[in-house]
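To illustrate the input format used throughout this study, we show a single complete record. The first block contains the structure-token representation of the backbone; no residue identities are included at this stage. The design step must infer an amino acid for every position from geometry alone.
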């Protein structure tokens, strides 16, 4: 062993145990009481939780979007992950219209190569449905890209998949075992409603709040319902990304009770913020799709995590600075949509989930690490504290108290949607495949340490 974590409390979804944990190279090789350390480096984790590193399965690093490019690139975005206790991220490779999906994946891998500081994978995003795309999806699954993401919106930017494409992709999911992630919002209903508010008078009157007014809850749950129907009739495996409404939690709960293979993810912004943010002078900074909903929605989403209707928490990190957000110039349709988040997910989930007794510590580990690993085909290499699992570990200090402010963070963002949130608990040390990469919120790893993960078919959970 070359590294031993002593005196900590190991936490998994199954429970807590006081034990030492030994690491050799990239792997966990020993778990037990009073492990002999010899000349191994020792980290004293007395009073701390030792957990599998968090897995953020939804980040958009250096994404060209809304007329600009998201401000955290592969280097800085994965440094931010390491600072926040996240040891694996999944980004996206978006097919160009008329182009090859495999090529999109290879191009994105080339962009990330040598830059990532923690391990990463890619969801391939088909945007041009035809026989070639379907064939490429099968090849990608064989090569270890076992999840896909499809957009039910963004028709105008050429990224939308229609119902036929969704149905066919879920058939392919049933055949191959791949999982189909879906951004579920109703494109044409949204176009109609956005147009109604897109007048000089109403934009002047409502400002960024028009983003909320033009996106009532039904624009999400109508699409969720439709996607569930395609999962039902095909037997495919569906994963609703960034669920923002209480109704989505209800629909997923019903579908799962009916034996449909439907899963849902939510994000800290939907759990911790409400749509009053759009009434602020800087309300446009919070613009993201789907937009932040009501307090009642947040409560139902917390309940969904607790009950198991919602399986994962991810961040949908898509960082835009205040200068980039200023491109909106008073027009809510021109806000660069997206928020930073990978770095603050775990401390927020601990402080406002575990700390406020909305979920247990074990549940936090389950939804931030173990479930993502299982669903996305990375378990037990990731998301687990077991012999032979990757030594991806966060040593979490529950005693640290601080107030969240963007100036303390690694992200390139010059604001945080969670500015001023009081935190109790913060990652003390982050270990990625055996190497210490984060210490007290600062990056101490090596650029290029992260590698692409070949994944297997995910589990049904
Ligand atoms: O507004 C968002 N969420 N931007 C990122 C792209 C997406 O839809 O996930
Ligand atoms: Zn999306
Ligand atoms: Zn996204």
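Output of the design step:
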């Amino acid at each position: 062993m070359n590294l031993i974590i002593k005196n900590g409390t190991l936490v998994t979804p199954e429970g807590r145990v006081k034990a030492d944990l030994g690491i050799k190279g990239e792997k966990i090789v020993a778990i037990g009481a009073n492990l002999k350390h010899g000349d191994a480096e020792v980290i004293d984790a007395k009073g701390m939780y030792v957990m599998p590193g968090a897995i953020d399965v939804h980040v958009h690093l250096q994404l060209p979007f809304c007329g600009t490019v998201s401000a955290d690139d592969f280097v800085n975005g994965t440094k931010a992950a390491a600072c926040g206790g996240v040891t694996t991220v999944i980004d996206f490779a978006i097919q160009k219209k008329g182009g090859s999906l495999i090529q999109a994946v290879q191009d994105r891998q080339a962009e990330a190569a040598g830059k990532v500081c923690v391990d990463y994978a890619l969801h391939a995003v088909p945007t041009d449905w035809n026989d070639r795309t379907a064939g490429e999806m099968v090849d990608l699954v064989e090569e270890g890209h076992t999840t896909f993401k499809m957009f039910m919106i963004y028709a105008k930017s050429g990224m939308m998949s229609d119902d036929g494409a969704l149905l066919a992709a879920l058939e392919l999911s049933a055949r191959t075992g791949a999982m189909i992630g879906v951004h579920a919002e109703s494109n044409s209903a949204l176009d109609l409603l956005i147009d109604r508010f897109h007048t000089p008078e109403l934009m002047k009157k409502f400002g960024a709040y028009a983003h909320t007014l033009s996106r009532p809850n039904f624009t999400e749950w109508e699409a969720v319902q439709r996607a569930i129907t395609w999962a039902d009739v095909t037997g495919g495996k569906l994963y609703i990304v960034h669920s923002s409404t209480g109704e989505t939690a209800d629909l997923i709960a019903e579908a799962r009770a009916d034996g449909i293979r439907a899963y849902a993810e939510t994000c800290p912004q939907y759990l911790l913020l409400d749509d009053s943010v759009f009434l602020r002078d800087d309300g446009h900074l919070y613009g993201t799709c789907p937009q932040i909903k009501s307090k009642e929605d947040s409560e139902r989403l917390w309940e969904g995590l607790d009950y198991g209707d919602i399986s994962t928490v991810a961040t949908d990190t898509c960082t835009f600075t205040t200068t980039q957000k200023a491109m909106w110039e008073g027009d809510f349709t021109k806000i660069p949509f997206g928020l930073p988040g990978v770095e603050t997910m775990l401390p927020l989930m601990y402080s406002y989930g575990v700390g406020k007794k909305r979920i247990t510590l074990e549940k936090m580990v389950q939804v931030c690490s173990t479930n993502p690993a299982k669903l996305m085909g990375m378990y037990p290499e990731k998301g687990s504290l077991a012999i032979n699992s990757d030594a991806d570990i966060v040593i979490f200090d529950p005693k640290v108290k601080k107030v969240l402010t963007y100036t303390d963070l690694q992200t390139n963002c010059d604001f945080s949607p969670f500015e001023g949130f009081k935190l109790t608990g913060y990652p003390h040390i982050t270990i990625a495949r055996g190497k210490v990469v984060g210490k007290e919120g600062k990056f101490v790893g090596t650029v290029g340490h992260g590698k692409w993960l070949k994944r297997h078919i995910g589990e049904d959970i």
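Structural context for interpreting the output: The chain is about 30% helix and 25% strand. The longest helix spans residues 218-234.
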